Amino acid sequence: MDDTDPKIAEAAKLQAEGEAALKQDNPDAAKVCFDRAMELYEQCGEFIGMGNCYLGLGDWNMRMGRGEASKKAYERALEIFEPRESALGCANAYLGLGRVLADPIEAMERLYHALALHRQLGDTAGEMADLGSLSQRFIDLSDYKKSLKAAEQAMKIADELDDNLAKWIILGTQAEAFQSLGEGQAFQASMFLSDLISAEHDAPDSDDARARLADFERQVGSETFNHQKETADMIPKEAILRLTALLDFF
To answer: Of the four listed, 38, 148, 215, 235, which is most buried by Cβ atoms within 10 Å?
Structure first.
């Protein structure tokens, strides 16, 4: 990518703004940015930039509930990245497909491709995203222990990166797996931790999380509430260790 070309530089800026807008739950602004960036990349014949825009459009369509359009955008990105040997582009396209494909087996094949590439590149944020998505796909297959193992690995990276939004998402998946396994205490602890992160870092359900936490503190008292805040994270960790002790993968 020739960053000295003003059109390409503007396209890269617009693409970054689109990605930021999507994270901030402003899909309308994101779509405008992605569309304009794509126009500029096409004018310059900048294929890697076009591929990255297709990734953004795949994310946008997935956010809007347009699964087929999202799939086509990720596939188009892969068609651009593969012949140009862009390992990062391919990894991110595989991740997108792993999230959006309806068939969980096909989806997991793409996610394993993404995981291998992200690890090869040393892209820990990408690895975290792959593992988090694998955790959800294992739930789709009713393989809850493997889901917890993948979630555990994703959470370790989220802690290292101090990525609170990722932690919130992973805890939600983890709670779903615990609930399905009948692990009530670990489920409750995961939901409590999820609410703490949401309330402190303005996750999408932060208002509801604050209300739930306030209601819980009223029920149990401040001393018990504060004790739970200090100890809750150990309950899911101990449950995962007990449930997945014989699993060795990822």
So the answer is: 148
CA atoms within 13 A on the CB side of 192: 22
Count structural domains, the chain: 1
Check pLDDT > 80 for residue 249.
Answer: no
Separation of alpha carbons 32 and 42, rounded Å: 16
Domain containing 10: what range? 1-122
Q: Which class for 170: exposed (0-12), middle (13-18), buried (19 or more C-beta within 10 A)? A: buried
Where does the pLDDT of residue 229 fall: very low under 50, low under 70, confident under 90, or very high at 90 and above?
very high
Read off the pTM: 0.91
From the list 64, 4, 5, the residue with the least C-alpha distance to 34 is: 64
Residue 17: CATH number of its domain: 1.25.40.10
- What pLDDT digit, counting tens, does each position of 60-119 carry? 999 999 999 999 999 999 999 999 999 999 999 999 999 999 999 999 999 999 999 999
